[in-house]
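cache lookup: miss for this entity combination. No prior model stored, computing from scratch. Input as submitted by user K.M.:
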Amino acid sequence: MLDNHQGQSAIELAIFGSILIFVISLIFRQGVSGGNYMRTQMQATRYAMSKSFEMAYREKPGRNTATTMVIEDRLSGDFGNKFGSRDRVPLVVSGSGTYSNQLFYPTDKDDYNDWASSCAAGKCDNDVLPHYDVWINGQRFSFLTANFKVVDFPLTQPAGMAQCGSNHPTDSRCWDPTCANGVGCVVLQQIVGNFKNTDYNPAGNFDIHFDGTDPVAAAGVDKSLILSNNGQLSFFWQWRGKQAVGELSTKEGYDVDGDFYEEQIIFSTVDGATGRTLQAIVIDRQDGDLDLSIDGRQPNKKVGLLKESQLFAITSNGTVYRIQEGKLYNLRNDQYIRNTNMNEHVDIVQRVFQLSNDTHRFCNGNIPKNNTVIPKWDADPPDNPVEACNNCFLGTNAQMTCLNTDSHSPDYLKLYVRSRISNKAGRTWFTRTEVIH
Amino acid sequence: MLTGQTMIESTFSTIVIVMLMLGMVKVFFWVGSDLAGRRVAHETTLISPVNMDINDNYRQIRPAFYEGQPMDASTINSEIFGPNRLP
């Protein structure tokens, strides 16, 4: 209590009123942020659901389960800056949706044939392949997470393929000269959980790295005994060999290309004379724009959104904030007084997305593919947002969304997504006045 | 102490406090109605009955299903004093 009691109420009001205003602004700021986050989250989920529905309606299995990631840099409430908010808060949300109508109709031989026909016509219809849709500040990137692959199997032992049981650490496939009545064939591998009875595998069920040493077989003891006692404790999984003879089962996955990852078999063809498998058409999850299967088998590899992110601001003639005051018009008796306070700059937010393979869907060499003339449903990718290719830090490319297609660069297949966001927030007041004569 | 000093200060403070409280009510109302309105619109459209028609189905799950609540920050446009709005 002040000694003379003068201004007591006013001082209390000033102190507690400012605290109250601060609290109100905090609530408001949280409300804006919460609203933005909820809106983006629901949009991501609904976008995924709508894409799954649309693709199912068109009987395209690529997005039976659609996944979407939305990234937006939105201005946050800033009550301490009289020039308006400048801070951008990144919102990163993901959504997924499954329309179950076509769930049990996965990609099959007919889909592959349609895809091959469309590619032969010059424009691949990739909607039969799984996608990952990413929206970054309004730019849509439709990444493939798998691709079709045609693998031909040799009918004689090729020079680069080792015999089963020897050292072949870079290729899981090996040559078994005893199969198909002694003419020989390729042995494919698949990963199975550990169990007591091991199936046929001339390469060694527990030769994890295919260096020619099966630690279980090398023990010189009955396999079943080791597995039942100690072996099962030491190994969580094992390789199961499959001779490339006859049609490969579409219900199982085999590593047909030797990269230590299994592929999904679509169909296969057989050599009529010897019964050996001639060719397999598979969906390879390591051949899409994004290889989301990266794990310890591919050490130090990265994929997807990288941590690096930068924000640049470009202003008009060095002006960040524009203030205009004074007389605007003077027509006869009418005068308008204006007072304009507004931001006038462009924020460039750069995000980096690491791709795994150059599928030539975004760039054709150094030239970005421009699909704006192709109807949205048919374009691949629809409305290609990549504006420049190869040298992404060239002066003319510095503010464009760019894919580094230089295979000799350490930044090979880095997609620099540059969002140019104009900030012209502000206010303009016009006050009409009349001159009294 | 001047005569009526306390009365004048209290009256002034009361008026300011009432304005602050009105602002607080507006903020509370807007924050709650914006979040709840979006959630209600989301749930309502998702479970609304549809015919087996692509446009009708798409209406349920369209991404742009909701417009944010207007703040109506100025009291003259707000509904605090009733539904009468300026044209």
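stored under new cache key. Chain A touches chain B through 31 residues (CB under 8 Å).
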